[in-house]
Amino acid sequence: MANRHRGETDVRLDGKSYRMCLTLGALAELETVFGDQDMLALASRFENGRLKSSDAMRIIGAGLRGAGYDIDDQAVGAMQCDGGAAGYVSAVAALLEATFGAGQSGSGQTSAGDQASSRSAQVARPEVRAGDPFPGKT
After folding, report:
1. Which H or E run includes 15?
2. Which string of DSSP letters, residue by residue, matches 23-43?
């Protein structure tokens, strides 16, 4: 099972479950591929709300390689995702949210300060809707 606190998500490709994680190396790979100068520029690109199929292929490929799989982007492009095109978009959205989204406390318990901090974070950050390919965009 993927550990969201470590930025991990799962995806089913060709009927098999894979773990994905955008490690620092995977993010550097995406910066190079997309020509972005830094991680903030990369995050801004993804918040833009537009996703080409080749972008999804590269992001999923980088996430798979970040999790330790030796799968190139062309192999990813030949794989079928559960849910079809929407499944690819959901997989990318989940991976980007796990990587760039706000973390949650692992203890399951919150103090009053944590609750206030959480409320202010919710005000500053738009709600993420199920199926939204780019969390944080309204």
Report:
1. none
2. -HHHHHHHHHHHT-SSHHHHH
Q: How many CB atoms lie within 10 A of CB 11?
A: 26
Residue 138 to residue 135: CA distance in whole angstroms:
8
Q: What tokens appear for 101 in the block?
A: 């989204």
What is the model's pTM? 0.71
Nearest CA to 59 among 46, 44, 78, 41? 46
Give the pLDDT score at 100.
87
Q: Is the pLDDT of residue 122 over 70?
A: no
Average pLDDT of 123-131?
Answer: 41
Rounded to an integer, what distance in angstroms lies between the CA atom of residue 71 and that of residue 66? 10
User: Does residue 135 contact residue 128 with C-beta atoms inside 8 Å?
Assistant: yes
Secondary structure tally for the chain: helices H, strands E: 6, 2
pLDDT (tens digit, 9 = 90+) per residue, 58-81? 999 999 999 999 999 999 999 999
Whether residue 22 contacts residue 64, with contact meaning beta carbons closer than 8 Å, is answered with no
Domain ranges of the chain: 4-124
Strand, coil or helix: 17: strand
